[in-house]
Amino acid sequence: MNNLPMSTTWVFVGLLSGRELAMATMQRGRYQLRNVFPIVGKDFLKILFGLSISIALVLIINNLLDGAQP
């Protein structure tokens, strides 16, 4: 069992990144590879932001529930 069930999110972002890289390699004329990495980097930062928010919420809720029990 996994304590942090985020595997589907990482797979989805991997698929999106792979799609961007495939489009960059197939359409050499107007879609260049150097334009892909900022897009992939932004997606990665958004995922890390969401992961940190979800971990913070879990920790806050866990601490509140532990404090409420006698």
Overall number of structural domains = 1
Radius of gyration using CA atoms only: 18 Å
Order of helices and strands: HH
What is the CA–CA distance across the termini?
A: 30 Å
Helicity range of the residues?
Answer: over 70%
Mean pLDDT across the residues is 78
Poorly predicted runs of 5 or more residues:
none
Structural class, from secondary structure content? mainly alpha
Shape descriptor: rod-shaped
Q: In percent, how much strand structure appears in the residues? A: under 5%
Q: Count the strands? A: 0
Largest sheet: none
- Alpha plus pi helix count: 2
Can you tell me about this structure?
- By secondary structure, this protein is mostly helical.
- It has helices at 7-26, 36-68.
- It has one domain (7-68).
- α1 packs antiparallel against α2 (36-68).
- The two termini are 30 Å apart.
- The model has no long low-confidence stretch (mean pLDDT 78).
